[in-house]
Specification:
Blueprint: E1 4-13, E2 20-29, E3 32-38, E4 49-58, E5 60-62, H1 74-81, H2 86-91, H3 96-105, H4 108-123, E6 127-133, H5 140-154, E7 161-169, H6 178-195, E8 201-206, H7 213-225, E9 229-234, H8 242-248, E10 253-256, H9 262-271, E11 274-277, H10 279-284, H11 292-297, E12 302-304, H12 318-329, H13 333-339, H14 342-347, E13 363-366, E14 383-388, E15 391-392
Parallel strand pairs: 1-4, 5-6, 6-7, 7-8, 8-9, 9-10, 10-11, 11-12
Antiparallel strand pairs: 1-2, 2-3, 4-13, 13-14, 14-15
The structure holds N-(iminomethyl)-L-glutamic acid and fe (iii) ion.
N-(iminomethyl)-L-glutamic acid binds near residues 96, 205 and 311.
Length: about 400
């Protein structure tokens, strides 16, 4: 029989519509929740182990990361902090292309080691599920290297659960014709990725200086033939119709959206596409926040994610993004919590992560009195433990 356990918590935020239990108890056997409710309603039993927490929540879900990166971009960061422009650096061969060089120089085993280390550190921040994109390979071999490392990490149950995204259109490598590159990614690489089951979804970076709506449509048409879900980097620097495109293709999410019109937001809401907002990136780039009031007015469901990457969001911390969503974007605590749990799961097409009887014991124990306190520790939240199906992700 699997070992039984009990968690006693001052407060349990379950993620359901009536989400709170004060003085809560969660009982379970192995990886499954057997009882959740108020202490006075808990059954009498003698569990093998009893744990204490201030707050328990579903394990956090980071719905947008580029966590399979290698190398460093500190020189570029210093330049940018002194006023150099992100897009200009990219056009001069820095930025994403610098990370491409690092992927070319590393072998798959070493990349896996780097990625696993990063995922372990993310878990220590309360995260039990992470979306990870490729997109720094930028060649057949490079993208496959990233996707194989991500897939191997996804097979390790001691790490957060992964959603694997093939970011097929991120940047054109230098010396490559743009049309030939787009064709290679869609016609040559995507079929291999699908055949070898190396990704759950595909992504493209649609923007004024990146890829066009037309190029992303070609990618999404091809992805549909392989039954792959789609998502989109849209409107980070300019609104070129990315939101409308995400809506047309029923994407799980449209991400960034610093620049989006009301019709674009309405299209997202109508198609049930989540807006994944990335406050660490806009803060690092000193951009104005996305129009959160307009998104709310259109009834778009909001997600907050880290965008963890070595360029625009040099962090591994979803709680930092959550804190910035409250500080910079005016998220309510409920938006912050749902944006890192239930809405993030919906964007990734994962089962609802609400803590409930019969559901998985995928949860975080916090040394915090209230979920509102999660908006305050600036990237250093006091995590007691993080479980994936009843198993601790923290050594
Ligand atoms: O989500 N905008 C494009 N991609 C990433 C940044 C990539 C990088 O700078 O390495 C983003 O912000
Ligand atoms: Fe991104």
């Amino acid at each position: 029989m699997s070992p039984s356990w009990r968690i006693e918590a001052d407060r349990v935020w379950t993620g359901s519509l009536e989400p709170i239990f004060e003085n809560g108890v969660i009982d379970g056997e192995g990886g499954v929740v057997a009882f959740i409710g108020r202490a006075e309603d808990a059954p009498h039993r003698s569990p093998a182990k009893i744990l204490r927490a201030g707050l328990v929540t579903p394990g956090l879900i980071d719905a947008h990361t580029h966590a399979a990166w290698a190398g460093h971009r500190h020189a570029e960061y210093v330049l940018r902090m002194q006023g150099a422009d992100y897009v200009a650096i990219a056009q001069a061969g820095g930025g994403i292309l610098r990370s491409h060089d690092a992927i070319a120089a590393i072998d798959e085993a070493e990349l896996l080691r780097v990625l696993e280390g990063r995922l372990r550190r993310m878990a220590r921040q309360g995260v039990s599920t992470v979306e990870v994109k490729s997109g720094y390979g930028l060649t057949l071999q490079g993208e496959l290297k990233q996707l194989r490392a991500i897939t191997r990490a996804s097979e390790n149950a001691a790490l957060p659960r992964l959603v694997r995204t093939f970011l097929a259109l991120h940047a054109v490598p230098s010396g490559c014709s743009r049309d030939a590159y787009v064709a290679q990614m869609i016609d040559e690489l995507l079929p291999i990725v699908a055949r070898e089951r190396l990704a759950d979804r595909v992504d493209a970076y649609v923007d004024a200086h990146a890829f066009t709506v037309h190029e992303a449509s070609r990618l999404f048409d091809a992805a549909a033939k392989f039954g792959l879900a789609v998502t989109l980097h849209a409107g980070q620097f300019a609104d070129v119709g990315g939101a409308e495109l995400a809506a047309k293709y029923g994407a799980g999410s449209a991400d960034h959206l610093e620049n989006i019109s009301l019709p674009g937001a309405q299209a997202l809401a109508l198609a049930g596409v989540r807006a994944v907002l990335l406050p660490v990136a806009s803060y690092t780039l000193r951009q104005a926040p996305p129009p959160v009031a307009l998104l709310r007015e259109a009834n778009v469901r909001l997600v907050v994610a880290s965008d963890a990457n070595p360029g625009t969001a040099p962090t591994e911390s979803l709680p930092l993004a959550m804190a910035l969503a409250v500080r910079e974007y005016g998220f309510t605590i409920d938006e912050m919590m749902r944006g890192a749990t239930t809405e993030a799961a919906a964007a990734l097409r994962l089962p609802c992560p609400v803590l409930r009887e019969g559901g998985p014991a995928t949860l975080t124990l916090w040394d915090l009195p209230h979920e509102a306190a999660l908006a305050m520790p600036w990237g250093a939240p006091p995590v007691i433990d993080v479980w994936r199906d009843g198993r601790s992700l923290i050594d």
